[in-house]
From TrEMBL:
One of its GO terms (biological process) is purine nucleoside catabolic process. The gene is rihB_2. PROSITE patterns: PROKAR_LIPOPROTEIN (PS51257). PANTHER family: INOSINE-URIDINE PREFERRING NUCLEOSIDE HYDROLASE (PTHR12304), URIDINE NUCLEOSIDASE (PTHR12304:SF4). This is Pyrimidine-specific ribonucleoside hydrolase RihB. Its EC number is 3.2.2.8. It comes from Paraburkholderia domus. The keyword RNA-binding does not apply.
Amino acid sequence: MKLQYIGILIISMLLAACGGSVTATDPLANAPKVIIDSDFNTMGDDGQLFAMTTQLMGQGKVNLLGLTVVTGNDWLLQEESDALKAVERMGVQNVVGVYGGADYPLQYDVASIRAQQAANPQGYFGAWSRPEPTQQSQLVAPPDGFAVSTKLQAQSAADFMIQTIKRYPNQVTILEVGPPTNLATAIMKAPEIVPLIKQIVYMGGAMAVPGNANAVGELNWWFDPLAVRTILQTTIPQAVIPLDVTDTVPLTQSIFDQIVGNPNKQTAVTKAYGIVNAGAFGDNTNLYDTLTIAYFMDPTYATQTKSAYLDIDTTSGEDQGHVMVYPDQPAPGASPQKITYVTQFDNNRFFNLYVDLLTRPVPITLP
């Protein structure tokens, strides 16, 4: 026993001499763990969410384990390129990998999509509104150029999710801010991860307001309603930031000016933000994905919520993406549990967080 104690003491002394310790840990080990699953863009809502989350990572408040990408706002190849630049821009390319995911929804009917576009000329249909790029030369560079050296991870988005959720059982939250094709694929491939996911926080759906794609569907959930339904039918704890609340959180010129107009806080983020969002407030642009990180960090940002059993119409046509809300009794096919969705946000408090995180120094310094 005495010799064993001496051995431990010697090891401790050697570690101390090397600047380490017996219990040395990652400074982010105890921070809440998240994966962002995104239909990524440079500095639209997805890009803003990534910048905000990595700034919180720099404060030791969140541990972003990876960024997974799925076709939605744009086609996968373009989004991957934007995401690779984003990790370089924020200085986290060595700690946050970018994982390519699904290029197409689980189920889709191109003829129906074209008919819906024709019937809803003001609708937002994301990637379906432009030709799909097939090579690098067809991609559009972010305002500050393409990534210089960062490469896509070899592992697929779904496989990364499976591996990470198993590595950290009951610890990982998915910020689901694109069509949830990647997550649905992971669940179908490895259903054993369902009880291991801590929670999902979505931006998606329209509960009691018109859609922004067709008349009833919000883009993220309209894009792959079968994936949405696959996940809703699980027992994973889920919360939704739907259009019902994002419709009430507008980007104003005042907020825009606070981000891009402060001469003492000019960064690669504020410059890209100014270029990408120039005039957005004049087009009645609302804030979407960024609300998820605020809600994740502190659910009291939501000043009003409701809960109901949810289902979604997966049929092709004008009802595609329509969310069915059952406040009291679940209908066949609906979620087996009530799901919370947000209907009102503390806008002033949120905007303070939003402006602060988007104007902090870049690249970030990790703890």
